[in-house]
Amino acid sequence: MLAIQFTPFPVLHTPRLILRQLTPDDAPAVQFFRSDAAFLRYVPREPEPSMQQAQEHIQLLHDNWANNISITWGLSWPNQPDLLGTICLWNLQPENYRAEIGYGLHPVHSRQGLMSEAMAAVVRFGLETMKLHSIEAHLDPGNDASIRLLEKHGFVREGLFRENIYFGGQFLDTAVYTRWAPAQV
Fold first, then answer.
1. What is the CATH number of the domain that holds 61?
2. Which residues does the UniProt record annotate as the domain N-acetyltransferase (predicted)?
3. What is the pLDDT of residues 111-152, one digit of tens each?
4. In terms of C-beta density within 10 A (0-12 exposed, 13-18 middle, 19 or more buried), how is residue 149 classed?
5. Helix, strand, coil shares of the chain as percentages rounded to 5?
6. 136 forms bridges with which residues in the sheet?
7. Which of 39, 52, 84, 178 has the lowest tally of Cβ within 10 angstroms?
8. Could you give phi then psi for residue 14, rounded to 5 degrees?
9. Separation between Cα atoms, residue 119 and residue 122, nearest integer Å
10. Backbone angles phi, psi at 31, to 5 degrees
11. What is the domain count for the chain?
């Protein structure tokens, strides 16, 4: 079984970004990410609009990191603390050497290749440092930008779960994409 140890917090660097631990100062951005209708367009989750909910979410992410349950990085410019987005490895399956990746970027920073840089760093961390066998992504099959991002980073579509989520009064589909460790491709 895979041994998971996220301490100390692994800060990652890309050509333009630093991937760092979230702090209480990130609560306004987290509040936006968890409440903005456009940001949540492809996420079947009720909005959480309060600052208290954002602070509680940051604490949950910290606790999950401290207990080696999951890890979430905040994306920032190297010399500016503003939170541009987040990316995480969660839903860890140590017995299967597998994890799920999740990510989101503030819309004002989209189409600049920032999430692509972050994804490259996190996939490398997952496969090389954590020694994962595979990383999966679950997403709305209509999220074309996310599909292009995943495919750019070697993820392939494994399947489609039809109407497996009931949200907002309707049944929604989920596409599953996976990236395997290089030796397994």
1. 3.40.630.30
2. 17-182
3. 999 999 999 999 999 999 999 999 999 999 999 999 999 999
4. buried
5. 30, 30, 35
6. 100, 178
7. 52
8. -120, 175
9. 5
10. -60, -45
11. 1
Q: In the structure encoding, which two tokens stand for residue 141, read together? A: 């099959």
Q: How far apart are CA 47 and CA 32, in angstroms?
A: 9
- d(CA 39, CA 90) in angstroms, rounded, equals 20
Q: Specify the DSSP class assigned to residue 27.
A: H
SS (H, E, C) 91-136: EEEHHHCEEEEEEEECHHHCCCCHHHHHHHHHHHHHHHHCCCCEEE
Helix 144-152 to helix 114-124 angle (10° resolution) is 50
The amino acid that residue 44 corresponds to is P
Residue 175 lies in a domain: no
Asked if residue 147 is part of any domain, the answer here is no
Which residue positions in the chain have pLDDT lower than 50? 185
Q: Would 174 be classed as within a structural domain?
A: no
The residue written with tokens 């609560």 in the block is 27
Q: What is the DSSP letter of 49?
A: -
